[in-house]
Write a structure and sequence with these properties.
3 copies of one chain form a homotrimer. Chain A has about 400 residues and is α/β, with parallel strands linked by helices. Chain A contains 16 helices and 8 strands. Chain A is globular, with a radius of gyration of 21 Å. Chains in contact: A-B, A-C, B-C.
Amino acid sequence: MAPPIPLPPLVDQHCHGVVRSALDDRAFEALLTESDRPAAPGTTFFDSQLGFAVRRWCPSLLGLDAHVPPGEYLERRRELGPEEVLRRLLPAAGIGVHLVDTGLPGDLTPPAELAAAGGGTAREIVRLETLAERLAGAAAPGTAAGEYVDGLDAAVLAAARTAAGFKSVVGYRHGLDFDPRPPSPGEVRAAADRWLGARRGGGTVRPRSGVRDGDGRAGGLRGGASPAGGGHGPRLTDPVLLRHLLWQAVRTGLPLQLHTGFGDPDLRLHRCDPLLLTDFLSAVGPAGCPVVLLHGYPYHRGAGYLAHVFPHVYADIGLALSYTGARARTVLAEALELCPFGKLLFSTDAYGLPELYVVGSRLFAGALTELLGGWVADGSWPAGDAERVAAMIAAGNARRVYGLGPGT
Amino acid sequence: MAPPIPLPPLVDQHCHGVVRSALDDRAFEALLTESDRPAAPGTTFFDSQLGFAVRRWCPSLLGLDAHVPPGEYLERRRELGPEEVLRRLLPAAGIGVHLVDTGLPGDLTPPAELAAAGGGTAREIVRLETLAERLAGAAAPGTAAGEYVDGLDAAVLAAARTAAGFKSVVGYRHGLDFDPRPPSPGEVRAAADRWLGARRGGGTVRPRSGVRDGDGRAGGLRGGASPAGGGHGPRLTDPVLLRHLLWQAVRTGLPLQLHTGFGDPDLRLHRCDPLLLTDFLSAVGPAGCPVVLLHGYPYHRGAGYLAHVFPHVYADIGLALSYTGARARTVLAEALELCPFGKLLFSTDAYGLPELYVVGSRLFAGALTELLGGWVADGSWPAGDAERVAAMIAAGNARRVYGLGPGT
Amino acid sequence: MAPPIPLPPLVDQHCHGVVRSALDDRAFEALLTESDRPAAPGTTFFDSQLGFAVRRWCPSLLGLDAHVPPGEYLERRRELGPEEVLRRLLPAAGIGVHLVDTGLPGDLTPPAELAAAGGGTAREIVRLETLAERLAGAAAPGTAAGEYVDGLDAAVLAAARTAAGFKSVVGYRHGLDFDPRPPSPGEVRAAADRWLGARRGGGTVRPRSGVRDGDGRAGGLRGGASPAGGGHGPRLTDPVLLRHLLWQAVRTGLPLQLHTGFGDPDLRLHRCDPLLLTDFLSAVGPAGCPVVLLHGYPYHRGAGYLAHVFPHVYADIGLALSYTGARARTVLAEALELCPFGKLLFSTDAYGLPELYVVGSRLFAGALTELLGGWVADGSWPAGDAERVAAMIAAGNARRVYGLGPGT
């Protein structure tokens, strides 16, 4: 076994808040899957790589033996209560900076509260579709399309003044095979008119489905502890408005995170292949805005290719490591084939459970150590460069891309 | 090396019969490939992962040393004769239950005969396209389309009374990118009318190509020992009828097996990506019918994703292990990334040669032991759960999905 | 660690020439990537698997320690001069035969010069698109389309008399999803008429972009040492003419190399999936021309499938090994899943830098030894067959496919 490679405090460049209230067993288990449906008869979500990883890394932090059965773990968790569980787990993740996507509904810890609990700092990532939906939900009846669009553009600019970056789930809402060009102002206004009209009429609005990432990312919580937050406008799926949001974000120059690869069943995975973004990435190149391809699995090799050929494109491997558990080393290795070492970013994509920060960071650190340590041991890599590259992926690359100063 | 993980008698949830007659060398070799064509000049199908796996596992069962050259092995096989070879090989596979797709032509052992030879039991999987083609072949000239469709629907219902499940090769006949909705009765009748008419006229019927899985799966046997069975109607490729068959099967509630991933050159592999089924899987969810995605390679990670997010979807890894031989452990590992452990099923997809049962089960057992044993050894998995999960994949999951009682 | 498997002198079945002149640091670094753009701010192309592989294998050949920092290596290189660097590096690659794609512009070593420097022999691979563009560039103003097409057909036939094979970059120029049928003579003439007219008018001709493989493969050299060669006609992207070229090459019976998989950002990677060629491969089968699928990554498993089912199809793994460095063993292993062992070919795809021949051959030899040696050690493969298969992939398969006599 290779000796551990020392890592700096991690920059978790994509995560969500933690559910503040106590979770019953069913709600806990529902947060161990990307599915928004119950487990199949005779099965449990604990029987998965993620479930086994939670049982490996978390019990000892709550005073239990590693790998205790799920029932014992859940009992101990109830005994301690949500605040104590958070207090014990989150600091163990070794995360120095959290970049928090605040676009999910529910009673989740906001960035500052998360940072305080974890002993680090936090910055906000603004989810574009949520911004547009909140604005539509808050608009007075009869608001004209032009007025709405002006307000939206102003809201993106305003968000850019404080946010660390933007995020889009256009992969969920349409697929990544969208028209790469910016829509014209007339097209945007017409699309806004249709959308606001549909919202008022209620006629063509698709019912909320409680999906995890596309909309609510809280499928398992629907009957559970934390009802999805209300007050939003209708779900935004109009491709013209989705493209307009992307281009408005690009124009701010802030990093833009794009969901790619797997997620809940609200998406069509083969339409979330990051390679479908090639023409869009070409088109936005001159704008100088970094684009971060989130997750990527099972298309992470393609994401690495895009990061290889486009200077402004970066790849993330967060969610894929948590969900593949004992296989994290191999998945990380695949991401490190074509992706230049200055282009890969760490994240946990943790959501809801503090356990997911622990699992995400432990799997990452372990996989990185074994992988790079193995390459040093067989002579492929020099030891000094392995340490340097590990620090880049763990924190340095994200600090550079998001412009995080040493005090962040 | 990790100690072997004990496995129960396997449930081989997808296999075919064994050729009853003696095979000449060319016919034997033709059953070592998914190709329906001869080997390239200067090459042999023995020079493949499957060929090497046969030479690893089978010679000792016939009294030879492992890895003897192909010529010696074939000579010994001829010496013993097909019945003795079957008697020596099949029981060594350790299979307790065979679920046999009976839709391939040729003089193959029927399920009961196979079970008797192997010392286990067997149940039938009814191939939908073969059912429709046999019915068309047996129909009196001038049979009306409505009458044919009524007969077909009745035949599906009748099959459901005894079969363990259904199988479709719509991936071969059309691709998995079919319209996910059930066709209307009028559309089905019109399609049947066209198809029966073409059959009578012979005009638009595509010539039989002797493909292995799509139709005959016996390409190499065409000039060999076992001529493809005759008496069928024309090849069914009409997408409306193919979809009707799928929906009729779904309505019975029995498990539905779908070919996905690689096979003979009669398919277009990129149109057999299981992710293309996403909308169909969504649509059939409420019907309560389990859907099993067969093979999957090289899209088995996508199949694992579908099994992750849809409660009624299961993944199989059989054929991929046999054909990748020394690489079986890695391929199995990839399947075990997103696929919940209660959702993966074992099979051999063995066809024609008793060797393929041996190779399929040995490669599976070896890969599972090394993989799970390795995860226990490095602390990722607890030993007890590794044994439990191994037994689930080897037999338990299939017993639950197909409702196989302890006596089966 | 497994003992090394002895390899014969390699047949590098796809490579390019070496830049003859001295390269400044920026030009050197630009040849370490498939990108045609500068490295992202704060990053260097040396921080990549290829960069680390160069630092592993090449410094000792120039009298330095392995893994010296890039600056020291470049300094030593400048000190020695390009001829001495070539003289020291190329023979260390152990390549006996170079098949050189001569279709790239720039001041590159022609095949005979490359062979002399490396101590081996060389044959030419003629790039079809370059042939057509050179002919168009040399055509007198007012040349009729029919005359141009006749000249083109004659040029393909003439090239076939001396070339070892043809190569097409239709994947770059259109994507592999082209109409598989040969175009009619009338279509070809009309397309030639449009193309020659556009060339004269200059109106619809796409500006040269300096892309690496599609056109110039020398993006990083644009401001550097070696300007792209001039005098060519306009870039050929017309799908009818591209298909005509493919079919004319097929009719000669010589091996046809097709770019598949990753390359510079001038291609759309998802449109370079070799599986998109399935219908074309079926269509050209009867012509008896071997087709070699180059590179393939990340679709190399699909390329292996095509080589498995089609007798006339072969797979190559060259470029993928160089660019994945420490991961080369795994990438090679994936190629060796479905691909019959008589169907995989070695290459370096080296271009510009002599370092790339060294890296390509060392990574290949190391990966092959570890992989096959590991399979021998765990009992999967017999030792004798491992040596035999290694020699096939290293040289024998290519010798057979390209008809290279023992004197070549």
